[in-house]
Amino acid sequence: MSNFNGSQSPFLELNTVKNWLMVHWQFLVLGISLPLLLFSILALKIRENTEGLPWDVSILFAIHSSSQSQIEKNDEK
């Protein structure tokens, strides 16, 4: 015999949103809220500084130089 009770849905085992939040609060804080907060802070810093971040230009130059070398290598073949 199964233990399934037809009158109670398996999705209602936690009963309320409060119980669900009590069980999953760590995931909500660490997995969603913290990355969203860090991204928001970074976006505001970029918006405040019209020149970008100090390390932004060096990363862009590194990416650009590596991609140019790949294109030149493909053209030589």
Give a verbal description of the structure.
The chain has 77 residues and is mostly helical. The chain has helices at residues 17-48, 56-76. The protein is elongated. It starts with 16 loop residues before the first helix and ends with a helix. The model has no long low-confidence stretch (mean pLDDT 75).
Q: How much helix, percentage-wise, in residues?
A: 55-70%
Class based on secondary structure composition and strand pairing: mainly alpha
Compute the number of strand runs.
Answer: 0
Q: Tell the overall outline.
A: elongated
The number of helices is 2
What does the average pLDDT come to?
75
Using only C-alpha atoms, the radius of gyration works out to 25 Å
Distance separating the two termini: 70 Å
Main sheet overview: none
Topology as a string of helices (H) and strands (E): HH
Are there runs of 5+ residues with pLDDT below 50, and where?
Answer: none
Percent of sequence in beta strands: under 5%
Descriptive keywords:
elongated; mainly alpha; 77 residues
Quick overview:
This protein is mainly α.
Fold topology:
Elements: H1 17-48, H2 56-76
